[in-house]
Amino acid sequence: MTLYNQAKVLLHKYNGTFTRRQAISEGIVAPSLSRMVEQELIERVGPGIYADPMSFEDEFLIAQLRLSRGIFCKETALYLYNMTDRTPNFMEMTFPKGYKSNYFDELRIKPYRQIDALYGMGITTIETPYGNQVRVYDIERTLCDIIRPPHVAQDEVVRQAMKGYVQRPEKDLNRLMKYAKSLKVDAKIKTYMSVLG
Description:
This protein is an alpha+beta fold. The protein contains 10 helices and 8 strands. The protein has helices at about 5-15, 20-25, 30-40, 60-65, 75-80, 115-120, 140-145, 155-165, 175-180, 185-195; strands at about 15-20, 45, 50, 70, 90-95, 110-115, 125, 135.
């Protein structure tokens, strides 16, 4: 198979972005990846990450691949859930306590750190606007996070999100209250739900 065809197969299978590890698992040797980059069949967008040079980069997926412990959260999660009309200027991600990276500025990441007991609570996956799966906190956890000090979202953002949640047929109020209690925002959540419910 020619380099062109190999690149085409990889880009198709992995929706325009793939890792070195994925390429190797498909039988592509590392020197072939270098030649594909030289011939501009693919573009290296990060260490061990390649993308289609003819399409827009999925910044959410690239951030996830480069910062694999990160979980999209807060207003970035609201954006991925279509629960806000504001396009984020940066991406918010939560990491385990003590996590550090030199990539935060380059990738426009606003990092938050969380103790293990809270870091793993409510992790799920969602499709980005480009059709790739990334890790994100579920809607209930996200609603708790946006009203949780010290990083509280603006009132307008919170009201829009809470109103949108109440109208969702798949909402889980029991889960919401369970998270709210663990995150110590149960009184605030009860107030929003009683006003909107």
